[in-house]
Design goal:
Layout lengths: L1 E5 L4 E6 L2 E6 L2 E6 L5 E5 L2 E6 L11 E3 L2 E6 L2 E6 L2 E6 L1
Parallel strand pairs: 1-10
Antiparallel strand pairs: 1-2, 3-4, 3-6, 5-9, 6-8, 7-8, 9-10
Amino acid sequence: MILEIITPEASLFKGEVSSVSLPGLDGVFQVLNNHAPIISSLRKGELRFETSTPVEPNAHLEVSGTSVSVQIKGGVAELNNQKLIVLAE
């Protein structure tokens, strides 16, 4: 699936991923390939995803092998047609 992480300041990531863990209001949940469409509010916490393509670490992204994480303050996630868009603070 395609993941796109957008903040008011910048686009943090856009690329192919195999799974994403998100900090939902009721707890952490995971989205995998072929997941049903979903819209969810997000709370402060860690957004973590797995990718097979190399990602360069920067001030926002922490990279450990194929696992990448970013701290968010909240936001909204929408998954539709194998594209997950995260609008994060």
